Amino acid sequence: MLGNKLVVIIGATGTGKTRLSIEIAKAIGGEVVNGDKMQIYDGLDITTNKVSLQDRCGIPHHLIASIPHNAGDFPVSFFRYAAKTTINCIARRGHTPIVVGGSNSLIHGLLVDNFDLSIVDPFGQLEVSYQPTPQWQCCFLWVHVNEVILNEYLKRRVDGMVDAGLVEEIEEYFDTLSVNGHVPYVGLGKAIGVPELSEYFTGRVSCSDALSMMKTNTQILARSQVTKIHRMVDVWGWHVHALDCTETILAHLTGSNKYMEDLVWKRDVSDSGLAAIQDFL
User: Fold this and answer.
1) How many angstroms separate the CA atoms of 58 and 21, rounded?
2) Cα distance between residue 20 and residue 49, in whole Å
3) Which of 24, 68, 204, 254 has its CA 20 to 30 A from that of 146?
4) What's one Pfam family here (predicted)?
């Protein structure tokens, strides 16, 4: 195995993982490996919050838009193979792999030493004795935000996505792939926003109600992601560096100027994250 040290950035949706990954990659000579299962599919860039080419700041990003938008579900074992191959290629170039994503099932599937296909849900309560160990040396950075503050931010983020063309993007996807008024609930069709707005496109609910459902389901996703991270830490014993982004998000929500928001981010998140990585490397 060529790449024996990884930086792994985890956290709920909307907490700033992408921003941190790019800043770290610029600082240490890293390349980003996507660990978000919806962003692996091509298409629905607004819906899945893919980072734009411009915002990547020249940092190589891997396993983004790598699967056709009309492909079905892919097994975790596929991601494990693809990501391991990518990580080794990055290591050959003398760069540090930075794995980033909110899909904890993919993070688990990639990192565990012994990947057991018989374990359907490694985060399930029935797996009380399951304590996997990572196959790499990992520096885990957990970007977290107070739940109340994050919930408000996620609601506003959906509003921003609507302004950016979310409804039109999903309508085009719906028109292309719907069968008898339904988009199959597989692959990219599971992305939050697609099932909810499909109800609107078929006249079952109003657009406002569909977007409200999208906001609620995004908040539910964030809560589930945090629960799984707690299992990694509290049950599996994986050591993580917690980075509190609450004040940064709060500054954004209350309309603080960009300079102040960036200062808080640097103080609470990026400086602490870089310090942890420098000690690790």
Assistant:
1) 13
2) 15
3) 24
4) IPPT
